[in-house]
Amino acid sequence: MKPGRFTYHAPRSLDAALALLAEHGDEAKVLAGGQSLVPMLNFRLAQVDHLVDINRIGPEFAGPKVTGDTVTIPALVRQRVLERSAEVAAVLPVFAAALPQVAHPQIRNRGTVCGSCAHADPAAELPTVMSVVDSTFRIASARGTREVDAADFFQFHLTTALEPDELLTEVAIRVPQPGTRMAFKEFATRRGDFALVAVAASATVDESGTVTACRIAAAGVAPTPQRLHDAEAVVIGSTVDDEAIAAAEAAASAAVDPTGDIHATAEHRRRLTAVLVRRALAEIKGDQS
Amino acid sequence: MTDNITVTVNGKQHTATADDRLTLADFLREKLRLTGTHLGCEHGVCGACTIIVDGSAVRSCLMLARQADGAELETVEGLAEGGKLNRLQQAFKDNYALQCGFCTPGFLMSVTAALREGPVRDEDEARDVLSGNICRCTGYQGLVDAVLETSKEMHS
């Protein structure tokens, strides 16, 4: 189908974009990569009066930046750009592992990292990764700026902390401590499909091989990426040995309460969560030796 | 609102009017009469409308024409060289990589972009390159063979 009628705006600066959002608020939607919004417009699942296209707000928003202990991903960084950034891969290789599993190259060439987060599909890969790294969502509006962490940013199915007049200007990620290893695993029925379940995991180990910090999150099992705190708890203090992995698998299985749908039953999703937690931890363990 | 936009398509500059809600695919087909770009699903899943925008393969049904103002576009009409099939098109023909041909323009543009980035070494990589396009007539084996054959010729 074709999209309904709207007024297209292409502001040339962040301030101009924010002014448009302040003026049109509820009747406006931000267009970045358009790989989720335009299908919804074409299906007329979404109808907007004003489309604020941020693609021309400035080249400074197009590339990831690694400075000191922070990786910054501004609003127009395409998924493909992050996937191929050697500079980011050197400090946060989890993105290079997860991004090839996000849709297809043709989608990642346009789709932005911030856009995927702002869209907040419960089965999407990037919000799940953002839930295990130390991420801060920087938000701007004509009223000012604010920062929100991942736990507060993702609120519900397709719902974030963003107000109608706000724009996600960048996600800032703290470079993990030395000894941190991450893994991303998902199961999808076809290449490029949304994951039935995806799991991102991060573990920091000290010199003796003992885990001092761990985060595990799953997609596709709840309205937002779900942190698996009980599974994290059994990994912390362990050496990610077989016993700890088995305990984490059981804890993950017990912690999720997925909904069944046409793509997979609830029980299938629960089982996948456990299996993917095991695979992610096994990969983290493998990296140690 | 309607505004004039200027795009370069296969090396030739065009200026035409575009409504705010006109997709780039419809702009190519209806305003420029370049009907080689096909529209299947119109929501970014089937890949039939894939074209190359500023060097990257994208879904032209998921871009608005207004967004392409000033862009360099490549479509299936630009592939043939002097009225002859180019290497990739010939490989599609030789390997029976199409049947009805509806999806073919999208496949050709996706594969063109991928082969410029580097060689496609094996079947697994070929299937990855092809995964963003859907063919509903035939299988994908002919397509895999065509991609591997062209990659070998281009990159050896």
TrEMBL record, chain A:
Q: Does the keyword Flavoprotein apply?
A: yes
Q: Which UniProt keywords apply?
A: FAD, Flavoprotein, Oxidoreductase
Domain FAD-binding PCMH-type positions:
1-178
InterPro entries, from UniProt?
A: CO_DH_flav_C (IPR005107), CO_DH_flav_C_dom_sf (IPR036683), Diverse_Substr_Oxidored (IPR051312), FAD-bd_PCMH (IPR016166), FAD-bd_PCMH-like_sf (IPR036318), FAD-bd_PCMH_sub1 (IPR016167), FAD-bd_PCMH_sub2 (IPR016169), Mopterin_DH_FAD-bd (IPR002346)
Give the Pfam families listed for this entry.
CO_deh_flav_C, FAD_binding_5
Q: Name one GO molecular function term.
A: oxidoreductase activity
Q: What is this protein called?
A: Carbon-monoxide dehydrogenase medium subunit
TrEMBL record, chain B:
Entry keyword Iron-sulfur: yes
The UniProt entry, under InterPro entries, shows: 2Fe-2S-bd (IPR002888), 2Fe-2S-bd_dom_sf (IPR036884), 2Fe-2S_ferredoxin-like_sf (IPR036010), 2Fe-2S_ferredoxin-type (IPR001041), 2Fe2S_fd_BS (IPR006058), Beta-grasp_dom_sf (IPR012675), Diverse_Oxidoreductases (IPR051452)
Q: Give every 2Fe-2S ferredoxin-type domain span.
A: 3-79
Tell me where the signal peptide lies: none
Sorted alphabetically, the keyword list is: 2Fe-2S, Iron, Iron-sulfur, Metal-binding, Oxidoreductase
Which Pfam family, any one, appears in the UniProt record? Answer: Fer2
Name the PANTHER family on file.
OXIDOREDUCTASE WITH IRON-SULFUR SUBUNIT
Under which name does UniProt file this protein?
Carbon-monoxide dehydrogenase small subunit
